[in-house]
Structure formats: structure tokens, C-alpha cells
Amino acid sequence: MIAVGDAKLASIVADFPILSHPTSRGKRLVYLDSAATSQKPQSVIDALVEYYSDYNANIHRGVYEIAARATDAFEAARAKVARFINAADTREIIWTRNATEAINLVGYSWGLQNVKSGDVILTSELEHHSNLVPWQLLAEKTGATLRFIPVDHRGMLVLEDVDTLLRGVKLLAISHVSNTLGTITPLEKIVPRARAIGATVLVDGAQAVPHLAVDVRALDVDFYAFSGHKMLGPTGIGVLYGKRALLESMPPFLAGGDMIRKVEFERTSFNDLPWKFEAGTSNIADAIGLGAAIDYLDRVGMDWVRGHERELVAYALERLAPLEARGLAIYGPKDPALISGVLSFNFADIHAHDLASILDTDGICVRAGHHCTMPLMEKMGWPATARASFYLYNTAADVDVLVAGLEKAAAVFKL
Amino acid sequence: MIAVGDAKLASIVADFPILSHPTSRGKRLVYLDSAATSQKPQSVIDALVEYYSDYNANIHRGVYEIAARATDAFEAARAKVARFINAADTREIIWTRNATEAINLVGYSWGLQNVKSGDVILTSELEHHSNLVPWQLLAEKTGATLRFIPVDHRGMLVLEDVDTLLRGVKLLAISHVSNTLGTITPLEKIVPRARAIGATVLVDGAQAVPHLAVDVRALDVDFYAFSGHKMLGPTGIGVLYGKRALLESMPPFLAGGDMIRKVEFERTSFNDLPWKFEAGTSNIADAIGLGAAIDYLDRVGMDWVRGHERELVAYALERLAPLEARGLAIYGPKDPALISGVLSFNFADIHAHDLASILDTDGICVRAGHHCTMPLMEKMGWPATARASFYLYNTAADVDVLVAGLEKAAAVFKL
Amino acid sequence: MDDFYRDFILDHYRNPRNFGRLDQPTVSAEDLNPLCGDEIRMDLHVNGAGIVDDVRFSGKGCAISQASASMLTEELKGMRLEDVAKLTKEVVLENVGIGISPTRMKCATLGLRVAKSAAIGEIAGWPDEE
Amino acid sequence: MDDFYRDFILDHYRNPRNFGRLDQPTVSAEDLNPLCGDEIRMDLHVNGAGIVDDVRFSGKGCAISQASASMLTEELKGMRLEDVAKLTKEVVLENVGIGISPTRMKCATLGLRVAKSAAIGEIAGWPDEE
Ligand SMILES: Cc1ncc(COP(=O)(O)O)c(C=O)c1O
Ligand SMILES: Cc1ncc(COP(=O)(O)O)c(C=O)c1O
Q1: Which protein residue's CA is at the shortest distance from atom 16 of ligand 2?
Q2: Full residue range of the structural domain in which residue C73 is found
Q3: pLDDT at A62
């Protein structure tokens, strides 16, 4: 259980201005939807305000003072990202809008260059649409086929036959943490096998980087995609990490200003990494904002974040257990060691949307629906689930409010 | 000349916090680089802060209060954009990162579907790389050829032979206003001719929407692209306008969350417009910020903006004229009616970069280089130019400081 | 929102009227609310006089979409197909009564949208596949 | 920055030393500063003892890049090619003296980068075209 007087947690909560603003019904905001997007600490908001108020300028080509300051801050943010995920080189960090664009970039650039008819793309049954639909489109364009690592009834990947599954695989595209169930993929069991047969490996880390310490070199992946907005950063900024040699060998994706070296009427040569993949004016402010988010996470410490979420999940499982007799079904492995801070559930015959609406009246924000994992929902036979997802600013009190909200829902639905 | 006591102008200047912050050398900031990116009024900064502090949530799928508020604000911003450029339908407004991504979206989606070997893409010699390189890549992929509307020595498009130029053209891709010279393309002379032969028309309005009243229906274009950051909005948000029937007929570009209707393991059906083209978590905050920027421009009035820039250009041309005898060369038509608030120049044998560095010491921000229009520079024989670009917050006093800065540069270089 | 779930709503949710499929529908339509995943199908049978004389709905979803659709089917029976095509969301709001939040409006009107599109499709002819 | 443009800088800018091309260079390289468009080419002639005995540079650009390159060519003459490959940006900074702003550092070091890459290419062999 979380010690009530935990001073560190209290000071974290105080850093997030939204958490002290009551809802229109006067309730305390109990934000349990960080897997959709996280809240932002004041320091991130301040970084945006500072950029726009003090040194707003376009980057890379400006010789004047604020342009130089903006360029430095923008590239410093890139260096922070590189260090945060332990990339070997700052040039391996490409700014994108979000994880989705990062994955699509690989699909269009590396994919169309390398994937051929008959090739196999291996992914899993629990992927977010963003790490599935791009590969469906690529398969359609190239004549490649998709293959799926199955999930078992607990939502764990079935990896007994991983070598069989990997046969003939050109690309392994897999998520690090499931957004619907929170299950953590044991990448160490799959990636080395995939590498051994020469497959390229892309990991969708949208739900991992915010919650776990991620080391792309230790994982030894080729590509790693994630979004800033889920890790305390602003909306509109995401990251594609790629091994340098691989990025060098790829054709550009979007074309325009900043990604070029020399343009003539009929032909163009492209700029060096990372700018080769960054066409047009970058999202300067939000890249700087993501840098501030990383500073914040660094100060708190990713080990603390992971530990805190584990405690919250353990506490929530304990508090929710009594409701299981009344029809609460919690999905996933129900083991805090195997999942990040995500719990998906249904409550008797209350549809997840109705549950979310009832919880909303008490200021509790949970997500309801398919969580952009329709195929998983279909396979599991869940029309929808309600999902509570935790982050560093959630408290045991939030769990208590959730439990009370569920009791109320049971009363409303006369369970 | 600008009346010194213009109260409206003074109150506009006061709305931009950066303009009251002196540079590190204690100089007043004289920002003459709005063609690269504009400064932001307090109301835009406040809109971002409000979103992140009060109702930060992911959109479209959330049933709880702040998610609903975020969704409403996000879609309201889209409606503001639609009205601002007089689109027929809100669904015709697709959010992108910037003008560059908007143009690339058309290249990948419409282009790969419709452009065939032997087709002609007509563009001009004064395009920004963002409206040139995507078409080079498309031509390379499809076997189409590029053709260029020439520019004359003043930087005006040569349109005498427009019907000859248009022969066999599948796509006309042209900018509305040149970022290097400020010249305004007489779209009314080209677009109807292009339409008459059935060509599709894309206009790069990155330098037009911020400075002129734009009416996409009156212009009768198929696609119109622009960036928020050049029109008082945040970085990271841009717009593709497209006629609805055309957008409906196009395949999706990026794939992932939000742009889907139904996903199964092997196949996917796509969502309705505009979301079909918006994959992954959108740049929610910055879309809302762009909405606030449009509110600001609406309050000031685009006619006032255009009139003010014309006056500034006229005043600048008048004040700069005496320096021409000492080697100042101003490019472009030098007629405030034909250009927006942009002046490109060189001063004797002072290289543009040196000029910009010297001006910087007095707090003056001008851009130096090729302005992402290398082919134009090559054709004109300019290795680089210095560019001063104006916006609604610039004043006659800014012009005076620029002139004084040029005098100083002449002294430093012993002209 | 919690006062929305009154007894008659829960009753329609748990015991939907006219649930299932028709063997020989004159026209059917189905739609999905892509944002929440709710799905509804409506089968209408129309007699020679242009009157809906039988109706079934099927699908899955929240209490709001299912109860609204269930209540709607009771209204549809006996209506002229032309009038079905002209229904507005007021009919749904009158049925479900107070308390629906704007975010859930799409759920409440899903059945209506499906019924209308079936009626419009039958009257105007479905657009040809392109 | 304005105090950077002293007489000797302007002199090297307006009267660049060793400007032009060599007829028979042992090695040449060129590069472009993509951010500002400055271009510089360096032709080196190396004698049997591995000493640079002639050098020319050509290109266009700002006073900083051109003056720095001009001054650099004076240093290069008589240097061992191996030592050219090992030059650091200190040599440029000593040449141009005070006042260069960080944004312009790339201009100042463009000629150096080109000379070094010529020397390294000649010593190590250019990478094969892939
Ligand atoms: C004419 C023109 N087109 C396109 C662009 C590209 O805009 P962005 O960099 O915001 O994508 C610019 C910006 O410099 C421009 O001036
Ligand atoms: C596992 C996973 N992958 C990808 C994404 C897509 O992230 P974004 O919408 O920021 O592109 C998400 C976000 O919901 C996710 O949870």
C-alpha cells in the first residue's frame, strides 16, 4: 500500500496543475487514463511558454540570437531523448508527430524499399491499430503476408513456438507494453531469435517509455517508436529511434524544407541524419517541451515510476478483489510484475461505456471501448472494456475513489 | 507612413510578449523574420496553457468531462479554420504538422493513385522546396515529368504562354505567395485555365493565409496547404484543405488509431473524413492554439493586416532607396501592390550571412540564405539573399532600425 | 448522467424489444459507432402500402444505444417508410428522457441512424458500387 | 559579432589567397554548408615526401567562410598530408581571432572540413561507391 504521507508523491501531485482543478460537478479529478495521454507537469507547460514568450524562432538557418537559442534548445531536447533511451548517437533520434507516424515512416521508407512479395511480417494479436494497420497496408502494397504471435486467455503472448513463427520473417513489429492489458512483452525472449535469422525488429514503445526504463541498445532493436504526449510531454511530438546504419540506408519519407542538401529543378540530394527525415518546420516548441518532460522523469527516476505503478496495481487488485464476486471481471495476468500500470475490466452486464459515464459523474476518468485493439477484443470476445491506467501522479486515494465509483455503478444498475 | 500614435498597432505590439523582451545585448527585438515563423500573441500561449492545465485529455473516444471538452475545442478549432478560408465543409480540413506534410500527403495519397507515367506536373521556378521536392519524388516514382512556369528578372511568373505550359498537365502545384520575394501569384489567371483542361490544382498557401484574406472556394482550388506557425499559431500544426469529393476518393496516407472504422487481423475499413487522414493522437493542444490564432486574426481583420503590410513595405522601400546608390540591391517587383510583406536584398559585396550577423548585434532578426528556394536563387544568380519579412506587429520604427543597421554594416565593411 | 439509467432504460437494455433478425426483411442496414464500437443492425419489413409492419434490431453495445434502439423499434412499427426516413433525433430524446450527455449522443442515436439509412436506401435506391 | 570583421578578415575576403583550381591536384574535395549554402572546394597537390606543396580553394560564401579558407590555405602549404588530416578547429579559431558566434562556427570551419576530408580520403582511400 502507498504510505499516505509519502512526501515525494505529494510533491509530484502538486506539480500537475490540472489535478488541483475540480470538475464541473465539484469533484476532485481522478485521472485514470494516462495510457491514452498523460497529464503535464508545470515545468513542461513553462517550457512551452518560455519558448513562445522569449525565444520563438525558426531553427537551423537563422543566424540571429533567438534562432540560435531555439536551435540549441531543440537539438538539446533531441540529445535528452537519445540519452533517455540510451541511443548510441543523437542522429538516431527522428522527431515525428507521434508513435503512429514513426511506425508509418518505417513502413513507407524502409518497408517499401525492403519488403517484397512473399516476405512475412510478424506481429502479435495484441497490437494497437497503429502497429497493425500500417503493416496491413504495406503487405497489401508489396504482396507480403502478416503473421501473428497468438495471445493466451490471460493476454500473454504465446512464445513456445517463436522460432516456428519467425520462419521466413523479414520484419518483426511488436509492442513493448500492451495498452489494453498492460502486459509487458518479454522482448529478451523474441528479439535475439529474430536477429539470429536476420529479421529487422521494430518495437512500438508507446506504452513502455513512459513507464519503464528503456534501453534500446540493450534491447538491440532496429527501430523503436513512441509518443511524447504519453510521457508528460506535449501533444504533437513523437520519436522514431533507428539504428544509424539502417537510417542512412533508407530513402527519405516526407520531402521539403530542412531535409535537403541541395535542390535543383530536376533533382535533389538529401541532408544528413537526423534531418533527412524531418521535412518542413519541425514542431520546435513541443520537442523542447518533451525535453522538459524527460528532465522531469529523470528527476523522479524511472525506477521510482515503475515501482510506484507496481504498488498501485497491487493495491488496486487487492481493493477490487471483493467486487469480483459481484461480477467484476479483470482481464490480463493480474500480476503486478507482468504488467505496467494498466487494468482492463468489465463489471457484470454494465457496458464499459455506461460504466465510464457513471464514473465520470464522480470525477473519475477511465477509458471505455476497444482501445484501438479491435482484433484483440474480437479474439477475446470482449465487446468493450473499461480501462484504468495509472501514472506517477496517481495515489492510493485514486484507487479508493475508483472502488467507490464501481460500488455506485453497481447500485445504479441494480446489480 | 505609419502614424506614430496608431493605437491599434500599439495594442497589437503589446499582445506579443516576446516583443517586450530585450536581447542579451539589451537591444529591442526587431523581428523581421515572420516569413520563417511568426511570433505568438499572449492569447495563443494562454490557449495552450489552458488546455494543458484545465482539460488535457485525449479526444474522440473519451466519455468523461475533460475528454469531451478537449474534443469540442479541437473540433471547434477545425471549424474556425474552415470558416477562415471559407471551405464548404468542416470535413475538408485535415490537420497536418505543417504545410510540408500537407503537400506530401497529397503526393502520397492522391499522387500515387492518379499520376501515371507520361503525366505532367506543372509547378513554377519560385517554389519553396516543400512544393518542389515532393513532386520530384512523385515524378521519379511514377515516371511523370515536371514542368516549370518561368519567372522573369523581377521574380514575376511569366504567364503569357500559360495554355501552352498547361498542355497535358495532370497536376498544377503552385505557391500563392513566394516566401523569397513576396510576389503574389495571380491565381485567377492560372487556376481557371488549369481547371478548364481538367488538371487538379494544389496551392501552397504557407505565405498567403497569414497575410491575405484567402477564400478557397472563390479560388476554386482542389487542395490548399498552409502552416499554423506562420500565422500566429503554435509550431507542429498545419492544414490541408481538400475538396470533399476528392478527399473521399483518396486512399488513406498514414495508418493507425483514430483513422479506422473497423480493424480485423487481415483487413481494415477506414473512418469518415476528416479523420481518415488523421492517424494516431492528433496535435490536440496546437490545433486549439491555431484556433486561438485565428480568433486573433479575425479580431484584427485580414484586411487591416494586408493594408498594414503594404504600408510597411512602401515605407521600407522609400527608406531603403537612398542606400541603392551605395550598392543595396532589392529584388522582386518593388511594388507594394504585387508583393506581401517580404523584401529580399543584398548589400554591395557583403554576403547575406555577414549582413544578418551584423544586424543581429542590434537586435534585428533577418533571414539570410536561399530561403529553401535554391533553384530560384541559382536561376537568378544570387548565392544568397538577406530577407526582411513583416507582419501585423511590425512598425515603422522597426524599418528605421533596419535602415540604421544597414548603415552600420556599410561602415563595418568599409563600403 | 447516473440519473439517466432509470428502471425503464435498464429494462429495455436487459430485455430488448423486437430483438433479433427478420427472415425476409424488405430492407436492412447496419452501422457501427467507430468511436465506441457499438454495432446495430435493423431489419424492416414493409407492406404493400408502404407501412413498416415488422422490425427487428440486433447488435451489441451500451445501455444507451441498445435501449434507444429497442424503444425506437416500438415506434417504427406501423409507421410509413417515408416518415421513418424523416425522423429526427427528437424521437430518441423523447424516448430516453433527460440526462444524456453530449458525449453519449452518438450512442443514443445510433439505432435511429441505422433505421433512417435503411428507409432512405429503400426509397432512393442504394448508391451503385463504384 | 560586428567586431569580428576586422581589416585582415575583410582583406582575405576581398583578396582571397590561393584562390582557384589546380590543374593536377593530387586530391580534391568539396562540401557545402546545407544550412547557409556556402560551398568550398579544395585542391591539394602532395609531393613524393607526403608534403602539401600547392593548394587552391574555390567557392562562394560569406566573409567568414571565405576568409577562414583563405587563411587556412596559407597554413596548408608545407604541411605533411598526415598532419592536415589531424587538424582541429583551433587552427581556424587562431586565424580568425575573436568574436565568432556559435551560429557562424560552421561557416568558419567549412574550409577546414573540406581540407581534412581531402587529406583523410587520400590517406585512407575513398570509400567505394556502394
Ligand atoms: C512558400 C512556402 N511553402 C511551404 C513552406 C513550408 O512550410 P513548413 O516549413 O511550415 O512546412 C514555407 C515555409 O517556409 C513557405 O514559405
Ligand atoms: C501500444 C500503443 N501503440 C501506439 C499508440 C499510438 O500512439 P499515438 O496515438 O500517440 O501515435 C498507442 C497509443 O494509444 C499505444 O498505446
Answers
A1: A179
A2: 3-124
A3: 80
Nearest beta carbon to residue A62 from set B18, B260, B367: B367
Least confident of A110-124, B82-96, B99-113, C89-103: C89-103
Cell of A33: 487514463
For ligand 2, atom 14, which residue shows the shortest CA distance?
Answer: A36
Determine the longest span between alpha carbons in chain B, in angstroms: 72
Q: Which domain, by its residues, includes B398? A: 7-31+301-412
- CATH (domain of B240): 3.40.640.10
How far separated are the first and last CA of chain C, in Å rounded? 43
CB A217 within 8 A of CB A244: no
Identify whether residues A176 and A280 lie together within a single domain. Answer: yes
Tell me whether residue A372 is one of the annotated catalytic residues.
yes
Identify whether residues B164 and B305 lie together within a single domain: no
B chain contacts of residue D104, beta-carbon cutoff 8 Å: 353, 357
Sheet holding A367-369, edge to edge: A328-330, A342-347, A385-389, A367-369
**In this predicted model, what pLDDT tens digit does every residue of B108-133 receive, in sequence order?**
999 999 999 999 999 999 999 999 99
| Domain count along chain D | 1
Whether residue C7 has pLDDT greater than 60: yes
- Alpha-carbon separation of residue B4 from B1, B309, B312, B397, C5 (angstroms): 9, 15, 13, 9, 65
CA A100 to ligand 2 center in whole angstroms: 6
Please give the number of the atom of ligand 1 that sits closest to the Cα of B101.
Answer: 11
Q: CA B227, B233, B239 angle in degrees (round to 5)?
A: 30
Q: Which residue does chain B place closest to D59, by CA atoms?
A: B383
Quote the ipTM score.
0.94
Determine, yes or no, domain membership for C129.
Answer: no
Which of B60, B263, B278, B281 should be mutated for ligand 2, with most atoms under 8 A from CB?
A: B281
Which residues in A lie closer than 8 A to residue D61 (C-beta atoms)?
none
Last residue of a domain, one of A299, A332, A364: A299
Q: What is the CATH number of the domain that holds D24?
A: 3.90.1010.10
Rounded to two decimals, the pTM is 0.96
What per-residue confidence (pLDDT) applies to A46?
A: 98
Q: Which of A279, A299, A319 is the last residue of a domain?
A: A299
> Could you tell me if residue D130 is inside a domain?
no
The minimum CA-CA distance between B92 and chain C, rounded to whole Å, is 19
Q: Pairing state of beta strands B268-270 and B328-330?
A: unpaired
